């Protein structure tokens, strides 16, 4: 075996030397390209020598950690050579590809490896999941931190399949018998589940046992109205009352919008209505400006909320209030009050009479003493009545309307002396 290795090295370097002999007839660019090619070939040949030496020492001495994804573009690299060595140890052939060529045969071999260990999706390329499994088997050093999908899918001769065609969906059982699904159904593969302990970990094994048509859950979307325009976007919530756990056919939950800046401007020269785009209209003397809102209702956290979204402005005829007041009541705590109602419902307080006024409580009275009769007015001023006069209090009489009835209010305003009629 040692002689074979030595002979292999001599032949390899002889090949390299024969290539160098003709280098004098090349351009500088061609020489640099040849040097790069020879360096690559030497690296590959040295790797092969190392592998042959490892095979002489026994299979347990070979290891390699795969750190690079591999595909067709990596043909000629040492990594492809190591991939082929790993496939050989699995008993998977990559023939007729050469030891360092990644072509259709290598892709088929990698697909075989991925199927054997339940690696999905089946690509035929050496990606992260496939590298993790190879490193668990052949990696150098500690590979305990490598993890991969521990579920292995097997068919065990079952050819069940779900087939989607232009005329509908079909469930094909293990024997190849198709069943057409109803319009409200879809196809689902069924698996038997078992578990196995391998390489220090428990693997889930799913074995295909058929396919069937199942009733499709059809979402029933209930959506709130779009909310106000915030940051040029309106949002709403849509809930599937059938809880199908899918977003299929869900209405849009957001939409673009333009924030409305409509406004009413009251200036010395008149009133103006400014719409959402900034266009201005001057109202005539008999009109005023009114903002317009779109009203919607949204449901949030168990509460229905009314949302008013500004949508524009308009000039409308002025409404002239017609005020009817109850009249000022008695002086209570230094204040008299009344209620006033606009029977035209203009929604404004323009021209409304005062609802209250300040007042002073009058303490006017009559006082009879041994020397005569006296009047005391609201300010406390005392006046003596004549011998044939008597004293009486003076009241202002007003009326108020309250709760459907008329009430008479007598408010003390003073006291006076008068001569009673005979």
Keyphrases for this structure?
alpha+beta; three-stranded mixed sheet; three-stranded antiparallel sheet; disordered N terminus
Summarize the structure.
With 422 residues, this protein is of the alpha+beta class. It has helices spanning 2-21, 28-57, 78-89, 104-116, 128-138; strands at residues 151-154, 161-165, 168-172, 178-180, 185-198, 201-215, 221-223, 233-235, 238-240, 254-256, 263-267, 270-274, 280-282, 287-300, 303-317, 323-325, 335-337, 340-342, 356-358, 365-369, 372-376, 382-384, 390-402, 405-418. The longest helix is centred in the first third of the chain and has 30 residues, at 28-57.
Which sheet architecture does the biggest sheet show? 3 strands, mixed
Strand content: 35-45%
Instruction: Figure out the total of helices.
Output: 5
Determine the mean pLDDT. Answer: 82
- Low-confidence spans: 1-8
Count of spatially separate domains: 5
Q: How big is the Rg?
A: 50 Å
General shape: elongated
**How many beta-strand elements?**
24
N- to C-terminal distance: 162 Å
Layout of helices and strands:
Elements: H1 2-21, H2 28-57, H3 78-89, H4 104-116, H5 128-138, E1 151-154, E2 161-165, E3 168-172, E4 178-180, E5 185-198, E6 201-215, E7 221-223, E8 233-235, E9 238-240, E10 254-256, E11 263-267, E12 270-274, E13 280-282, E14 287-300, E15 303-317, E16 323-325, E17 335-337, E18 340-342, E19 356-358, E20 365-369, E21 372-376, E22 382-384, E23 390-402, E24 405-418
Parallel strand pairs: 1-6
Antiparallel strand pairs: 2-3, 3-4, 5-6, 7-9, 8-10, 11-12, 12-13, 14-15, 16-18, 17-19, 20-21, 21-22, 23-24
